Amino acid sequence: MATPQMRMEHSASLRLEAIERRPAVLRRQSTLRLLGAERSEEIYPVLLEEVVALGFPRALIGMADFESGDLIPVAALNCSRKYQQRFRVSLYAGDDPVIRVLQAGNPMVIPAAGLGQNRLYCHPVVYRNRNFCWEAERERRMDCLAVENFKRKRRLQLQEQGCAICELRAYAGVVLVDLKPSSGVRQIAELRALIEIANRYLGRIFRTEHHYNRMTDMEITIRQMETVMLSMADPVILTDANHRVIMQNKAAERFFKVPEQVSEGRIRAVELNNLLFSAALSSMAVSGSETSRDLTLVDAIEGEELLFEAVCAATYSRDGLPTGMVTVMRDVTDLRRADQEMRASMEKLRAAEELVRQDRDRLNLIVENVGDPIVVSDGAAKIVLLDPLAQELFGPDKEGERDPIRIRNQAKLDAYLTTFTFSFSDRDSSPLRLVHPGSRGEIEYDARSGKIYDERGQVAFTVTVLRDFTAVRKLEQLKLERRMLEIEKFAATGRLAGTIAHEINNPMEAIKNAIFLLTDKVQADSTPVYQILKSETERVARIVRQMLGLYRTADQVGSLEINTIVEDTLLLFSRQLEHSGIRVQTKLGKLPQAVGSADQLRQVLSNLVVNARDSMSHGGVLQVRTRHLPAPDGIHGWVRILIADNGSGIPGNILESIFEPFVTTKGEKGTGLGLWIVKGIIENHAGKIRVRSGVGHGTVFKLDLPVVR
Amino acid sequence: MTSRKYRILVVDDEPSVLTTYRMILEQKGYDVVAAASSGAARKALESAKLDLLLCDLSLEEKDSGFEIIDYARSRQPGLPSLLLTGYASRDVSERAQRSGISVLFKPIDIQEFLGTITTKLRNAHEQAQASGQ
Questions:
Q1: Is the CB of A499 inside 8 Å of chain B's CB atoms?
Q2: Is A568 an 8 Å CB contact of chain B?
Q3: What is the mean pLDDT of chain A?
Q4: Which of A138, A146, A612, A648 has the largest CB neighbor count within 10 A?
Q5: What is the pLDDT of residues A523-558, one digit of tens each?
Q6: Domains of chain B as residue ranges with CATH
Q7: Whether this model's pTM surpasses 0.95
């Protein structure tokens, strides 16, 4: 009971003696009524009724409203509205007697303010208690507001009516009772005791209410937290200090809770998950600094393996002792997969890059070693790349300036590139005469170009390689000179043979005529000898005639219009061929100029035409065709002359040796020199001759003569 | 007229060849005048009317067979002429063709030689008859 204590503290202690003597019955009744109050506001009317029951005419309770800073009447009995309003004052009105009493903290009787008015008993009610509240006790703190207010020595600070420990917003107010003029000390003491008891109950209810509210708030918070936790897509697990699961959300249950109606495999999966999880927690707890770790768990429902990143945070009690861990797990399977894929792509890219680099290096090496100037230009025929050799021809010199030679060279190149780039051909080659800036000599290049297309089929780049044509030309010139020498040698031999033949010719003529004159004049027994003389002389005559043909091959080596030579030769023999009933079919292609001896070629053709004619004694068709066969390098090539008959053909056994001297199919009429001479001439011209023949079908000769562009 | 022997002038600077030609032609019943040089040939042409001229192309003296034939034709237009040569060159063929001269290349096949002479004389005779009528 607070009464003895109060008596010690308050100045009106003498008067309080009487309260002890008040009949206990009455007090018990009032106390029980007050105890019946469930809520703080229920206490006010009960208190007022009990006050009036003590014989006071009217009473009023005013409470401090800390928000408005006013003292507000909250309950009143037998008080008019106007009367109540009298006590609505600011808490800071220091000169108001009621406020002064409230601040002072001691009950006081305020004398009547004027005539017809009663004295006013003013009793402050403040949240206070002799004992610490549960919170203060649990937290071992001494600054409990209730005790502070109880022990208070100084003026009440209305602003401080909040508990630092339990955050309770305390109350402060006054109970105002009109005293009758007859109200004595005893009555007032009784009133005072009643209010004290009421205040004690009020404080208790207030505290209970506060704790209830707090609990309710906490519950709401917990529920909210739970909702947050459950609604998280990532598994969240709350564990105690022994790593036992206290709480987990739905996402976590997938891995750590054994689902109903599930296979043993799944159960094992869950067990394994739990094992892995607690192992991870233990090791993290031991390491202390580690807060996250990768964990591979098996989804108990879907059965797939997932990679998680477990992030842990330790939980502590108020006094700093670890109470467990909160673990949030993030599914990083896709992330890791993406990461791995990215790594793999990166690797691939790096490898590809390496490949490209190697290719480029290789290409560069090739380009550097080609030894020919190389020019790369874009789809608009604009030069984008020059190799060092091309740089020499077209590029600026060291000082960044370009001399007129280079400018002229580039103009020529540009003209060529433009024509090629916008032409329809994929590749092209054409001669390009440029001047070398170093030697200032003219060089004939063979510009060979190709196109590179982009995916839309547009020309992306063109590559042009300039081949120094002078070297090829020089080589060809050398070859030609050698060939000319051969031809010349052949001609000289021919001339010698011709001269000899001519010298033999006249005596031969005389011998032949003499033999003729002796016909019928030789004796019968000498006739065989005469016949031998006659036939052998005729044979010598034929050989001489053939050799005479060589005498004419004295002309100069030069450019040959092969088609013209063919036409002339055929014209020469046209009457003979017509006479033999031979039809001539010609098909002459467009040919480049060849180099050689026109007369020798004429002899070749004549010999072949004569052979053809002789093989077609009963008529036939002589085909003569010419054709250009270009070589892939674009520089060299061949001219082919084909001479075909459909005459008697050459027997296989003779065909092999047909080009050897004195081999003939014409028996007594042939010399066996014609094809031998033909082969000699063709070989001197660096040409090739081939023959195909079938007895009864005819013979085909193919002559290939080299040409240089 | 028909019984008259055809007179043929043969020109060749090789005596042995000339002799054999003359002997062959005489054997065939022709009246043969032989000349071993261009000078002798000109004299022969000036002295008598001829039916046929056989001339070797290359002669010892400056004139070639072509010049002798030209000379003969200037005196006796349309005289059938036959050029004999050992040089079977195109130039000769072409020149002979242009001038309407037949060419026989040595060594000459005697049957062809005699055949050509007969043909030439017959053609000339027929032409003369045709123009005479």
A1: no
A2: no
A3: 83
A4: A612
A5: 888 888 888 888 888 878 877 777 776 655 455 677
A6: 7-132 (3.40.50.2300)
A7: no
